[in-house]
Amino acid sequence: MKKRNLVQFSPGVMMYQNGHPTRWWIQSKDQILCAESVGDAAEKLISYTVSDVLSEQEAFQNNAIELKLLIEAMRNTIATWYQIQMSRG
Predict the structure, then answer these.
(1) Strands across the sheet with 31-35, in order?
(2) pTM to 2 decimal places
(3) DSSP-based three-state secondary structure for 33
(4) Over 80: is that where the pLDDT of 68 sits?
(5) Is it the case that residue 18 has pLDDT exceeding 90?
(6) How many domains does the chain have?
(7) How confident is the model at residue 83 (pLDDT cuts 50, 70, 90)?
(8) Is residue 62 over pLDDT 90?
(9) In this structure, is residue 88 part of a structural domain?
(10) Is 18 a domain residue?
């Protein structure tokens, strides 16, 4: 399928025409919707793009929290190991 007049703001969401003079398609991940007008398509594109970006931001924040907890656990382990070594010394 040829995607003409492609508009895309994030990797996961796009809107395009594929030969029909008035219909637009909005693709979000594996879902494809048809809109009868460019205004409806643009509205869906904006909505889906915002959702996509917020989802990525949430995943990024969750990964950052997990990394922070891992670093704190490593610090505690090293501090405990150091205290054990110093008490043996």
Answers:
(1) 4-10, 13-17, 24-28, 31-35
(2) 0.68
(3) strand
(4) yes
(5) no
(6) 1
(7) confident
(8) yes
(9) no
(10) yes
Residue type at 61?
Q
Residue 28 lies in a domain: yes
Structural domain containing residue 55: 4-63
Query: In this structure, what token pair is assigned to residue 73?
Result: 């656990």
- Are the beta carbons of 26 and 44 closer than 8 angstroms? yes
What whole-number distance in Å separates Cα of residue 3 and Cα of residue 21? 13
Angle at 74 between CA 71 and CA 77, to 5 degrees: 150
Give the start-end residues of each E strand in 1-89.
Answer: 4-10, 13-17, 24-28, 31-35
Task: For residue 68, give both structure tokens.
Answer: 């922070």
Is there a contact between 73 and 58 (Cβ–Cβ < 8 Å)? no
- Asked if residues 41 and 15 have their Cβ atoms less than 8 Å apart, the reply is yes
Look up residue 33 and give its amino acid: L
Is residue 9 over pLDDT 70? yes
Residue 80 belongs to a domain: no
Res 78: pLDDT: 92
